[in-house]
Write a structure and sequence with these properties.
The protein has 83 residues and is mostly helical. Helix content is 40%, strand content 0%. The protein is built from 4 helices and no strands. The chain has helices at residues 5-12, 25-35, 52-55, 60-69. Helix 1 packs across helix 2 (25-35). The longest helix is centred in the middle third of the chain and has 11 residues, at 25-35.
Length: 83
């Protein structure tokens, strides 16, 4: 899954020009796998991209939603007895 539509489009139609000449070799590996049908890149929107809470500053509501999708909870939910 990828949250970058431009990366998905480049994997399907590799157009080369000055703006993308410095793309990492790892991208070319994924492009080749996509071309061979081994993988299919799929857009993953903000509300489904759980890794964002580890790498980006997100609004509290999005953070809480992603945290629950990761199976995590707020430690303040438990009282001192550990219930």
């Amino acid at each position: 899954m990828c949250d970058n539509n431009s990366a998905i489009m480049l994997s399907k139609n590799p157009v080369f020009h000055g703006r993308n000449k410095h793309i990492d070799v790892r991208f070319h590996f994924l492009r080749d796998l996509s071309k061979e049908g081994v993988v299919e890149l799929e857009h993953c929107g903000t509300y489904d991209q759980v890794a964002d809470i580890m790498t980006k500053l997100v609004k509290q509501e999005i953070f809480e939603l992603m945290r629950s999708k990761l199976g995590m909870c707020d430690v303040d939910m438990f009282d001192d007895a550990g219930k």
